[in-house]
Amino acid sequence: MMTVTIPTLLSEYGIPKRYTCDGQDLSLPAQWSAVPLGTVELAIFVVNLLPIHGKLFFEWGVAGLSPQLHGLSAGMLPPGAIVGRNNFGNTRYSLCPPKGAGPEHFFLKVAALPKSLGATAGFDVEALYRKAERSAIVVGLAGGVYPLSGA
Question: How many other β-carbons are positioned within 10 Å of the β-carbon of residue 47?
Answer without folding.
Answer: 23
